From TrEMBL:
It comes from Novosphingobium resinovorum. Its cofactor is [2Fe-2S] cluster. Keywords: 2Fe-2S, Iron, Iron-sulfur, Metal-binding. The keyword Iron applies. Pfam families: Fer2. Belongs to the adrenodoxin/putidaredoxin family. It comes from the Bacteria. This is (2Fe-2S)-binding protein.
């Protein structure tokens, strides 16, 4: 599925990410800055914060667990309704075309 990452300056990068991967690893594998993913997807760092594009919020849904919801409280930039931890967004065929906005910083 194709995922588009939009950085804080509005620069867009579209990449193809294999099914079963997640939005955090998709960014790292493709050299996209703006996602750090310090804990490697272990749901303990909150440096993979992203904003799901408003057109995709309903499809992607909210935090996948209480732990994600709690960790979101610790993100470095503004917490918004569309905030997610990108390591918790699994790539499925339903997400083909997904647009992800990257925060200015993860620290
Ligand atoms: Fe650490 Fe997502 S990579 S919480």
């Amino acid at each position: 599925p194709q995922i588009t990452y939009v950085d804080h300056d509005g620069h867009q990068t579209r990449v193809d990410i294999p099914l079963g991967e997640n939005v955090m690893r998709g960014a790292l594998y493709n050299g996209i800055e703006g996602i750090v993913g310090e804990c490697g997807g272990g749901l303990s760092c909150a440096t993979c914060h992203c904003y799901v594009d408003e057109d995709w919020v309903d499809t992607v849904g909210g935090p996948s667990s209480d732990t994600e919801a709690e960790l979101l409280e610790a993100v470095a930039t503004e917490l918004r309704p569309a905030s997610r931890l990108s390591c918790q967004i699994e790539i499925t065929s339903a997400l083909d075309g997904l647009i992800i906005h990257l925060p200015e910083t993860q620290f």
